[in-house]
Amino acid sequence: MSAFPLIRALDRGTSIFLAVLAAIAILVPLLNLFVPASSPFHVSSYFVALFGKYICYAILALSIDLIWGYCGILSLGHGAFFALGGYAMGMYLMRQIGTRGVYANPILPDFMVFLNWPELPVYWYGFQHFPYALLMIVLVPGLLALVFGWFAFRSRVTGVYLSIITQALTFALLLGFFRNNFGFGGNNGLTDFKDILGFNVQAPGTRAALFAISMLALMIGFLICRAIVASKFGKVLVAIRDAESRTRFLGYRVESYKLFVFTLSACMAGVAGALYVPQVGIINPSEFSPANSIEAVLWVAVGGRGTLTGAILGAIVVNYGKTFFTSGPLAPYWLFMLGGLFVAVTLLLPAGIVGTAQQWLARWRKPGVQSPVTNTAASPPSGEPAPRPAE
User: Of 242, 277, 314, 368, which residue has the fewest beta carbons closer than 10 angstroms?
Assistant: First the structure.
């Protein structure tokens, strides 16, 4: 047996998928920076920034698929962890502005000067250092998920009740961050960023680098999730999803498994939010909106719950559709179209785009044999004899 479980998890399809992501991460920045704008192969800076944002959404969707698709934890508040990671990055970017702000205060951000804050709050200390900001990007969402999950899972809150509580969590944070005295810019949030690590955030080279880093983060996140679901730990997660009580009776500490994967998922969402902020140029309390978290769940459902690749595909496809339709005369009807898409996928493609494709591929490889996913209802329960053929 190989000593490298991550390598064992890389089947042929996974390797091809990662190769495609790596090629995109290399080609898009090259076509943007080194191919003349007059060439048909040139990739515009607008495209780089737009799809960089989509990649961040794909990381968020991947984190949701890990807990929902493989452990059965439906979180309707994962946008909270995404936003917290974004605010941590935004605080670092604000501390880099210094005297280049409107009020030229070397310490206080502009909104604090405007609101007559006498000094920098203690929780802003340290964010002028990039390593500290990186730590907070992972630590703050992870710690919140750890505390929240410890209480929720120890109390055996599951199903729709857990979903409602996660939604209440993100709504409470939304209300808190909207307040000016909270110290995070109120309803305007954090914006007017100048540079990151000394590089201008608006420069084409910086945007291309952020795109490549986002793709790298997506690949690393995908590898981590793939290694988890392909391991014995992942098999226990699936058992918890399908029969939590039975898994607990077998002696597994269900709460510990759920707490670990929930915390890991929150950390991934925080990283996604941190990469999102410098590419978009703003972070405000609207990112805590429960509607954003629900929409992220829809990405996973459309792409294919429990497939990993489906979550990534769903996030990119749905958000590209949103950009396409909201920029034309159909903009007022986008939410209706999104709802219709979800209904259509639920009725026609219940396994999502990738899940349905996998079922069709399994049938094509074995003509006349139904996929185990679609033939579950026809199988007799374990320990019962199969029905006798009619005479």
Answer: 368
Tell me which residue of 183, 171, 169, 175 sits closest to 87, measured CA to CA.
183
* d(C-alpha 377, C-alpha 359), whole Å: 15
pLDDT of amino acid 7 = 47
Domain assignment of residue 180, yes or no? yes
What is the DSSP secondary-structure string of 22-80?
Answer: HHHHHHHHHHHHSS-TTSTT---HHHHHHHHHHHHHHHHHHHHHHHHHHH----S-THH
Q: For residue 10, what pLDDT is reported?
A: 61
Range in 235-249, 310-324, 329-343 with the lowest mean pLDDT = 329-343
DSSP letters of 241-268? HH-HHHHHHTT--HHHHHHHHHHHHHHH
Q: Model-level pTM?
A: 0.90
Out of 87-96, 99-108, 232-241, 352-361, least confident range: 352-361
Instruction: Tell me whether residue 198 is exposed, middle or buried, using C-beta atoms within 10 angstroms of its C-beta: 0 to 12, 13 to 18, 19 or more.
Output: exposed
Domain of residue 34 covers 5-289
| Other CB atoms within 10 Å distance of the CB of residue 30 | 13
Q: Does residue 233 belong to any structural domain of this protein?
A: yes
Cα(81)–Cα(353) distance, rounded to whole angstroms? Answer: 27
Contact status, residue 70 vs residue 237, Cβ threshold 8 Å: yes
Q: Specify if 274 maps to a domain.
A: yes
Distance CA 369, CA 354 (A): 20
Distance, in Å, from the CA atom of 247 to the CA atom of 253, rounded to the nearest integer, reads: 8
Do 165 and 158 contact (CB within 8 A), yes or no? no
- Report how far residue 97's alpha carbon sits from residue 207's, in angstroms, rounded to the nearest whole number: 18
Whether residue 54 lies inside any domain: the answer is: yes
Closest CA to 371 of 358, 386, 352: 358
Distance CA 160, CA 292 (A): 18
Q: Is 163 exposed, middle or buried (0-12, 13-18, 19+ CB in 10 A)?
A: buried
**Cα–Cα distance, 47 to 187 (Å, whole number):** 28
Alpha-carbon distance 253 to 97, whole Å? Answer: 48
3-class DSSP state of 160: helix
Query: Is the separation of the CB atoms in 337 and 324 below 8 Å?
Result: no
The number of distinct structural domains making up the chain is: 1
pLDDT of the residue at 40: 92
